[in-house]
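Supplementary material to the annual report.
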Amino acid sequence: MALCNYNRALLPKIDKFLGLAAFEFNKLHTSSTLSAFASNQDPRGWLKYNKKIYPPQKLGEEPRPAFVCHQKCNIKYSPWKMWYIASMVRGLSVDEAIKQLKFVLKKGAKDVRETIEEAKELAVQKHNVEFGSNLWVAESFVGKGPVIKGMRRHARMRFGVVEYFHCHYFVRLEEGSPPENYYQHAPKAPSEQLENWLGNMRKRKIINSL
Amino acid sequence: MSLRIGTFTGFHILNNFRCGYTLPTIAVQVRYRRTKHWDPKWKPLRRLKVLEIELPKYNESYDTLSEEETKSRLKEQGILPPRPWMERQFHISCTGGIFEPYVPPEGDGKVSPITTQIIEFQGHFRLKKTTFSSLLTLLGKELETQSDNKGGRPTHGANKQLMISLWTFANQESYRSVADRFDVSISTAWEYFHKVINLLVKHREEYIKWPKSYLEFETITNGFQKRAGIAGIIGAIGGTHILITQPHLMPNSYINRNKYHSIVLQGVCSANYMFIDCFAGCPGSIQDARVLRMSPLNTPMNNKLISDKHHILGDSAYPNQGAKQKLQFLEKKTRTMMAIRKIRSFEEDFDTTAFCNTAENIYIKSHEMLACKDKYKIREFITERAYPEVMHNMRDKTIHWKFIKSIELPRIVHARCTDIVTKENIFAQLTVRFHTQQVLAIYDRFGRLMYGSEIIAKDVLEYVVFEKHLANEYGVWRIHDKIIPDWMPDKEPSALTHKRILRSETQLQDSAIVPIEKKVPETDVKLSDNAT
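Predicted assembly:
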C-alpha cells in the first residue's frame, strides 16, 4: 500500500524530468491482497516453540511430555479483564478447564475456551499426543494487543481519548496429568507445618550456649 | 464506581407498583446510574459525545470471505487487487507413474534363521515338521508295540523308527549308511523300514481316496477356482518314474525315456496338495497318457464324472493341454531384454551388474538425505513424482536410518521403456529387487520413539523402480517409485491406540438415510464383519 502511494506521488515528477509518456506506475500491482486485512502483525514468537525439535531419547529415559503452544490474537476485550480468566484455568486439566469456562459469565471466556479446544485438537493431529484428554494447561497468559484510539467530546471544546483495547491470549497444553499444586504458595499440610516448625526450632541459635 | 445497586429500594418500588399481586420473595436488582441525566431527552445527545470509529476487523481472514466481500474490503482500504501470481516454475523430468509394473512372485524373500532350520528338516526328510508330527501321532502306537513276542532288545522309539524309514524314502542311501547314521544295526533299519511301509499301506485308504459325494467334489472344485480361477477342476494329474533294479522279465520295456529302469507312479491331487488318487506299477516305457488310460481312474463311472462337468488338470504329457502361462512368462522376459537393449542404444556402457551397484548407491544416498532432511540434495536421487511421497510428514521427525548389508545382491527384475509425446522422448524404468538389512528408528518432535528400533535390524525386501529420461543428455537414474505387492504382510503399526469403529456404533450415530457403507472406511467394515 505504501509503495503504491509512493509511486503515485512520484509519477508527475518523473513525467516532468524525463519527459516520458505517462508511465503508469499506478497500474503496477505491488500490494498483496492480504494487506487489506489487518492481521499481519500478530505475535510470532509463541508459535515458534511448536517447531522446536528435541534430540532423541535413550531407551530407558522417561518420555518427554509433548506440548502444544497456541494463541488467539486481537480479541476485542480488555487484557486486564482477560487476566482473571487466563489465571483461572492455569494448572487445570483440559477437560476441566473447558468445563469450567462454560460457566464463566465473561465475554473473554468464550475466546479462551475456543483457543484451548483448538489447541487440544492440534495436539492430537500434529504433535503425536495419543489422547486429547490427557493434557493440562501448563501456561496461560494474556498479552496486550493493539489499542485503537477514539475521540470523545467534552464540554468547552475539549476532548478526551477513548482507548479500544485488544488482547492476545496464549496457552500451552502439556501432556500428562496436572500437578497437585500449580502455584508455589500452596497451603502446607499440618504435618509439613509441624516439621517446618520443628526444624526451625532446632536450627535456632541459642546465644551464650555451648 | 458510578454504578450503584439499589437492591432494597428496587424491591420496594416493585412492590408498590404491582400491589395486587403476591410477589415471591426474590430480590430484583435494579441499577441506577448517577452519571447520566434522569431525563431521557438527552439520550441522543449523549450518544453524540463519543465519535464513532470503525474498529478494524482483526478476525476476518482472506480465506473465509467471498470474492465480492474481498473486493469491497480492497475498495475500502484503497488497495489495488493483486497482480496475477505466477507460481515458481520448476522442471519435471519424470513420468507420472510406473508403466507396466512388475508383479513380484508371491512369498519372495522369506529367509530367516527359523525358516532355514525348517527348510533343512524338509530338505532331509522331504516332509514338513508338522506333517512329521501328525504322522507320528498316527503311527506312534502301532510302531511302539512289539508285535512278536520274541523277547530280545526293546524297540527304539516311534520317533526314531519313523525317521529311519523317512530318511530311507527321501534319500537314495544304502541300509548300511542309514543304519550308521542312526546308530542302529542294518537289520534293524531294514525291519523298521518295512514296518513303516506296511503301516502306511494299511492306512492308505483313509487318506488317498477319490471324492465320492457331491459335496466333496464341490469343495475341491471351489479350491481350484480360488487358486487358479478355473472352474470345474477336480484334480491335478502328474506322473513320475521310480528307479528300480533291472527286472528279469522284459527288462527293455522298463527303460524309460531317460534311459533307466523304472516304474511309473501316477498321482492326482486336490487344490490343497492332497493326493486323491494313486496308481503305480506300469513299466517305465509307457507314456503318461497311456498310464492314465490303464489306471482305475479310467473306469466308465469316473469317465462320466470327469467328462461331463469336471476336468482333471494335467501337463503336456496328457491330451488336451495348455501352456499359456509359460508363454506369458517368456514374453515378459523378452520385453525386459528389449528394454535393456534400448537403454544400451542411449547409454553405450550400460551394464546390468554395474547398474545394480549404482542403484544400491542411489538407494542408500537418498535415504541418508532423507534422514538428514536435505531437501535440495535429495532431488538428485529421487524423481519429482517420488518427492512428495518421500518428504511427506517428516518435517518435525527425527529419522535414524542405517544400511547394514545386502542379504542378497540387488538385481534387475524388470525393465521397460516408453515414449512420451514424441517418439524420441524416451523414458526408461528399471525395477531393482533389494533384499537388505536395515535399521530404522523414527522419533517424534519430542524425541520419543514413534516407530522402529535403534537396535533391531530388519530384513527389508523392496522392489524399487528407477527412472531415467534417456532422451535427455543430462538425465540420471533416480528413484521413481516402489512396488508393494499385495501379498506383502502389513507394516507394523505405530504404537498409538486407534479406535476401531464398529458397524453398530456408526449405525447409532448416522441416521438411516445415509447408507453406512459409504461413510465408514472399507477396512473398518471388514473388521466389524469379522467381529460379528
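The helical segments of chain A are 2-18, 45-48, 79-89, 94-101, 107-126, 190-203.
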